[in-house]
Amino acid sequence: MRFKEEHSSFFEPTAVQPDPDIMLEVVEKFFAYAMMSHRWEDQEPLHTAQRSCRTSAVTAKERGFRWAWSDTCCIDKNSTSELQKSIISMFKWYRNSDLTIVYLCDVADSSAEALRDSVWFKRGWTLQELIAPARLLFFQKDWSLLKTSDDLPLDNYKESLPFRNWQRMSWAAHRKTTEIEDIAYCLMGIFDVHFPVMYRRGG
After folding, report:
1. Could you say which DSSP state residue 154 is in?
2. Of the given ranges (19-28, 32-41, 173-182), which has the lowest mean pLDDT?
3. How far is CA 183 from the centre of its chain?
4. Which of 79-83, 90-94, 146-150, 179-183 comes out lowest in average pLDDT?
5. What's the rounded mean pLDDT across residues 70-98?
6. Sequence-separated (6 or more) residues with CB below 8 Å from residue 175
7. Reduced to 3 states, what is the DSSP secondary structure of residue 53?
8. How does 18-41 read in b/e, with b if 16+ C-beta sit within 10 Å?
């Protein structure tokens, strides 16, 4: 509805058929979205998570985006089917985003050591959030801009090169996940494979 309101000329009965390339450009610009990436702390208070989501949304809006996505508020984790669909689609969502906003809650200064030691670079799920997006902005604890993806040596990860499976596996070798199954699930998009998501029950 908002798209139709802002581009009403496309929908007038007497409107000239727009050029397909121009129409595609308009649609892509309108629906461009930003993703949020953040390693949630154990026992993190709900109000802290909500504040991080709001700040990331404001950050996205300041950069011209109408839409922002965060797994904290955009995935119903009580729904098995929605959770499975989201896990399978996550890499693609990050790949198709125009910007990924990375919040490093454990980085309090701009030193290279603080950045290198951030837990964000040691978790399984954040690997695809590093590899998939075309553009990333890294923010430190106080939400001041720390780095952009252009500042980091990411060529070793980008898929313009024909990486072998053992190389992809090596990226995750020292990363950890809370659930043991997630070390496999978080690699599905990186290896471009899909399989059922089934967490262990008891025992």
Report:
1. -
2. 19-28
3. 17
4. 79-83
5. 85
6. 122, 123, 124, 126, 127, 183
7. helix
8. eeeeeeeeeeeeeebebbbbbbee
